[in-house]
Structure formats: C-alpha cells, structure tokens
Amino acid sequence: MMERNAESKESKDDSDYNPFEHRNVEIPNSTFGTLLHVIKGSLGTGIMAMPLAFKQGGLLFGAIGTVAICIIYAHCVHLLVSTSHKASKRSKIPSLGFSETAADVFTNGPPRLRPLATFATRYVDVMILIQSYLAFCMYLIFIARTLRDVVINQQQVELDTRIYLLLLLVPVAVITQIRELKYLVPFSGVANAIMIASIGITLYFILREPITLVDRALWGEWSSLPSFISTVIFAIQGIEFILPIENKMQHPQHFTSWCGINNVSIGFLTVLYSVTGFFGYAQFGDQTQGSVTLNLPNNNALAESTRLLSAIAILLSLGLSYYVPMEITWQMIADRVPPKFANWAQAAIRLNVLLVLVAIAIVAPQIEPFVGLAGSIGGGTLVVIYPVMLDVVFRWSTGDFGLFRWHLVKNFVLFMFGLFVLIVGTYFSVMEIVDSYR
C-alpha cells in the first residue's frame, strides 16, 4: 500500500511539474523583445528574392504557396517548442535547447531508437554551427561589397572588398561581444525598422508605376515550382534561433499561444513576403532579377539606398546571428575553463572565432554557393524533418497520436514535404556551385 501511494505521489509530482516555474534566467527578455528577435531571425535580404520566387511559381500559385509554406513553418516551430516543453516537463528540466531536446526525446524514446540520441544531438549542433558561421561570413561580404559600391558611386574611389572587411572588424568585434539577448533587443528593433524602411522604398518604386497583370503567369512551369518552394522556405526560416530565444523569455507561455509570438511573427512576415513577391513580379514580369533591388532605377539615390539600408540592418543584426553558434561553441568547452577565467575566456573565444570568420571571408569571397548548400542540407532537415521526427518519437512513448492516429498521418505528410525540400534545395545548391566553377 505504501509503495502504491509513493508511486501515485511521484506520478502526481511529474504531472504537476511546471518547467517555466523553475527557470532561473538572470537577464530575462520581455515578450516584445522576443518578438523583435524572432522577426529579425527571419527577416533578411531573402525577402528581396521573393519577386523571383513568384516569377518561378506564378502569381496565383505563388500567393497560395507562400501562405501555405509559412503556415507549415509556423506549425513546425510550434511542434519543436511544444515538444521541448513536454520533454522538459517529463524530465523535470527547466529548459532545453534544440540539440538537448533531441537528446532527451531519443534517450527516453522507444528502446530501438535510443542509440540514435548521440547522433541526433550532434547533427543539430554541427549543422547549426556550419550554417551560422558560413552565413556570418556571407553577411560580412555583403556589407563590405555594399560599402565598396557606395564609395565608388559617390566618391569614385575604388578599394578592394578586403579593405572594407578589415575596416568592419572593429565595429563587428564590439557587437559580437554582447552576450545577453536582452541587450541585443535595441539592435534587433533598429535593424527591423531599417529593413522595413528598405522594403518600403522598394515597394514605392514598384507601385509608383501602373501595374498590369497581362502576360503575368498565374501558375509557373512545373520544372520551376521546386525552385519556388526552396526559395520561399529558406527565405522565411530562422528555426535555429527559436529555442535559444524562447528559453530566455520572462513569460515563455506567450510563445506558442494563439496570439503568441510564433503566430504573430509569422503572420506579419507572411504578409510582408507575399506583398513584396506578388507586386514585384507583377511589375517587372520576366525582367525580375534575383534581387528585386536590381530592377530599381540606376543613378537614383533613393533606389540605391535600399542596399545600403539592408547592409546597415544586417550589420546591426550580427550580434543575434552570432549568439546561437557561440552558445553552442561555449557549451562545448565551458567545463574545461576555470570559473574565475570564464568571462575572459568567452571574450577571447568570441574574438578569435570572429578573426577566423573574417579571414575566411577575405580568402574565399565567393562563398555564397557553399552557404546555400549548407543551408539546404541543414535547413531542409532542421526546419521540417527534425520537429516532425521529435514529435513522433515523443508521442510514440506515450501513444498519443489522436483519433485515427491523425498526428502520425499529418507528420508523415510533413516529413515527405521536408524530404522533398531537402532534395530539391540540395540539387539547386550543387548546380549553383557547379555553375560558379565553369
């Protein structure tokens, strides 16, 4: 009888455990600050490629497809966060990161899958590190090239891009030393405002001339539809930021609620991306370029300012871009550093990694195709496949698949979609690399 009562009490304690109440975040982030970070994690120069995506998909399919892809992405984010919360509650851990969630779910999952826990964990960390650091190099190159072009146009002074990369080292070194998300909120807020201003200027030039839908395809060629899907999903996604940001929230319950951060941010981005893509293609038609800014008038200061504004926005968001990979890097070595040297060690590691990334950008300025390949492989798996897989493995332990096992059916469909995105994205990235060396 005593053993039964003890088991009942333990079961009750498990069900009553609330991980949110046990989080001890020294410098928590507000709900609004978290919203700014989540939007900034997705809102980048990829939005300027949306008109090209609509050119590939057509006006009708493009509009429907963009909304559908954004809904799928929002659902996958919800799956990842909710699975992390459920795993935290089951294991009585206040919070779990992306790789930690994978480790917990597989370790406590079906016996046959438990040996995969180590691989699942390391894959997440390695792919996020490769994606994030290569993307950081690409951001540096984009900023340096933009500054070079502005100086050439305004002052007729031509300097090598590598000079601008070296000049960027000081301000970037300062920004990347900021370790708390709360202190990065002003940077994300200003970066979002500047990026939206750049989009606003672009839309001004798009909409100032009459738009005709004559000769505008409603449905793209079948061969170009995969490219459309790949372009949209990689433009909108920022899933590597989600759990690190959510774990620092003062009110984490505000993330996945109906009017929470996930739905509000994706709703806002869906409208912004759809409007830019639809009207950009409607205005420029078959002349739509890879970045719609290339379709804007030449020798027009306001039009040329869009690239400069985008570069400034990216510069201000480098601290957020650096946060996630540095958190993973620091966790790998933190146990080897004496506590009294931890502060100096973090500063030194952040600076040394930055020096390596700047060196890579200087030595390999044509890095974009490889960034695309890493993004296709990592993004294709982390954005859709992993959240779905973690949800299935967790539910397998509890048998909670719903009426007619609809959760399992729905997740299978999403898994196949993620596999399609992975294959298509990887194919186009490899083709881009091959073309760059011809």
UniProtKB/TrEMBL annotation:
Disordered: region residues: 1-20
Regions crossing the membrane: 58-81, 123-142, 162-178, 190-207, 227-245, 266-285, 305-324, 344-364, 370-390, 411-430
Subcellular location: Membrane
Coiled coil start-end: none
Gene Ontology cellular-component terms listed: membrane
Assigned keywords, A-Z: Membrane, Transmembrane, Transmembrane helix
Keyword check for Transmembrane: yes
Membrane topology category: Multi-pass membrane protein
Domain called Amino acid transporter transmembrane: residue spans: 30-430
Name the record gives this protein: Amino acid transporter transmembrane domain-containing protein
